[in-house]
Design a protein that fits this description.
Strand content: 15-25%
Low-confidence stretches: 375-388
Bound molecules: pyridoxal-5'-phosphate
Oligomer: single chain
Order of helices and strands: EHHEHEHEEHEEEEEHEEHEEEHEHEHH
Number of strands: 17
Number of helices: 11
Mean pLDDT: 95
Strand order of the largest sheet: 2-10-9-6-5-3-4
Distance between the termini: 28 Å
Helix content: 25-40%
């Protein structure tokens, strides 16, 4: 029966009706302005500042180039404190700048960098902190800023998950020195591929705009070894259209989040992280933790869901610090990262996206609930043996 159903993935990109995009394409074809800060690029920057409640934004081809450029723009060198519990691009952006990542453990409640552990990791080489608002849940930005101010460190947030997130009534994206967004196909707001840096002032934006365009200031002046990080007109035009639908899309995510919470409440051994207090969330992900007391292990449940055509993802497993280019670092030693390690072996992100139906959410919840009820030796013997 399950084989006749189309598979359900952890996410499915949200797209506007194609007819709505055709006039923009026509305009691009008519004007032949394809990139280099064209009219759609300018409009999208203005519209995003307005929507997000931020002063300045510089659009990018993707978030990884934006992270690399953000570090360049602040001339970050030496060591940077970051989280092992993220997507690899966070730490990769440091290696691309010749910076040594220093991994610090997460707070198991929030899954974000634990501010209480940061100070012990600071050395004379430390120049910055790169936290991640994991799953869009705001970091403790005040505690992080206090440490940064005390030690004269910069803070660059990897805010790839945090599009539109607000806490205590204002955008989380203005915390720290810079924040980097991703508009990749899998994210809450997508431009197929894309990203952005939120900048505090016009001068910073200008420097970043130079860096994303080879360092060109004018036709004959190059002020820095910049890169090509520009967003094209195609992506910017799509972004403008996506923005019209974003409130409805996030609203639907919130409804799915609420439905999962009610259907999965009280399952023994299943931990569903509480939403952050006083926060307008974006429900970018729906992580569950499979803990002691659940009949199956995380990997058994993951495999059981997969066998039913439900493709959750183990974000974030393995830890970044376990990948070969990082595991030799002293801070990658697992003994220093107990919470990140435990959470990474327990987590599954369940499917969540605007077009996911209530029926599918109910079915996914039912598979999880019944997994807890069925006898190990009856319904899933192969899975149990495979994992033993
Ligand atoms: C998606 C993601 C990135 C990379 O974004 P791209 O736009 O794909 O380059 C970086 N950091 C985190 C935490 C992400 O989830």
């Amino acid at each position: 029966m399950s084989s006749t159903r189309p598979p359900i993935y952890v996410t499915q990109p949200h797209l506007p009706p194609l007819e709505e995009f055709l006039p923009s394409l026509q305009q691009i074809w008519d004007t032949k302005v394809l990139t280099n800060g064209g009219p759609f690029h300018k409009q999208l920057e203005a519209a995003l500042c307005e929507h997000l409640g931020v002063p300045h934004i510089a659009l990018f081809a993707n978030a990884t180039i934006a992270l690399v450029t953000a570090l360049q723009s602040l001339r970050i060198t030496g060591e940077v404190i970051t989280t092992p519990y993220s997507f690899v691009a966070t730490a990769h952006s440091l290696l691309w700048n010749g910076i040594k990542p220093v991994f610090v453990d997460i707070d198991p409640e929030t899954m974000n960098l634990d501010p209480a552990k940061i100070e012990a990791a600071i050395t004379p080489q430390t120049t910055a902190i790169m936290p991640v608002h994991c799953y869009g849940r705001p970091c403790d930005v005040e505690a992080i800023q206090r440490i940064a101010d005390n030690y004269n460190l910069r803070v660059i947030y990897d805010a790839a998950h945090a599009f539109g997130v607000r806490q205590h009534g204002h955008s989380i994206l203005t915390a720290g020195d810079l924040s980097v967004l991703s508009f990749h196909a899998t994210k809450v707001f997508n431009t197929f591929e894309g990203g952005a840096i939120i900048c505090p002032d016009a001068r910073t934006k200008q420097r970043i705009d130079h860096l994303k365009n080879f360092g060109f200031v004018d036709e004959v002046t190059v002020v820095a070894p910049g890169i090509n990080g520009k967003m094209s007109e195609f992506n910017a035009a799509l972004g403008l259209l996506q923005l019209k639908h974003i409130r409805a899309a996030v609203g639907r995510r919130a409804a799915i989040d609420a439905l999962y919470r009610s259907l999965l409440a009280g399952v023994p051994g299943l931990c569903i992280p509480e939403p952050a207090p006083d926060t307008e969330a974006n429900q970018a992900y729906f992580p569950i933790l499979v803990q002691e007391g659940f009949l199956l292990s995380r990997d058994e449940l993951y495999a059981l869901l997969k066998a039913q055509g439900i493709h959750g993802r183990r974000y974030f497993y393995p830890l970044i610090s376990d990948f070969p280019m990082y595991r030799g670092l002293p801070s990658a030693d697992a003994r220093g990262l107990p919470h990140a390690r435990r959470v990474s072996t327990q987590v599954i992100c369940l499917p969540i996206y605007p077009d996911l139906s209530d029926e599918d959410v109910a079915r996914i919840a039912e598979v999880i609930r019944s997994a807890q009820l069925c006898q190990a030796t009856q319904q899933v013997p192969a899975l149990h043996r495979a994992a033993a």
